[in-house]
Design brief:
The chain is an alpha+beta fold. It is built from three helices and six strands. About 20% of the residues are buried.
Amino acid sequence: MKARVKWVEARTFVGESGSGHSVIMDGAPEAGGRNLGIRPMEMVLLGLGGCTAFDVVMILEKGREKVTSCVVELDGERATEDPKVFTHVKMIYRLKGDNLKPAAVERAVKLSMEKYCSATAMFAKTATIEHEWVIEA
């Protein structure tokens, strides 16, 4: 996997993925940024959410569950001293579907957390990770 980050100006950077996608990253005004894009550490947190959501949906679909929506809400806390790593992350999975079985959802979340999600494995080195799930109507 490859990536490239190019400085544009002030605290603005363009990240380019090996798959050909780009994203603008910027800092807060108090750090010299212009608030033109997502913060790099926000992007890291989003990566965690995307990684586990990908797993959960795929596991449910492979189990022939009729999932129609999967939202992962994340709340991350960071250390106050440098390096300001994530120290605690709470994730809430909100799923919808046609007769989703609670046991299947619980299994999918557990498999993502404990076996498949690479981002979770990395976050777990510095952070306590909590997760809960809800099947919504």
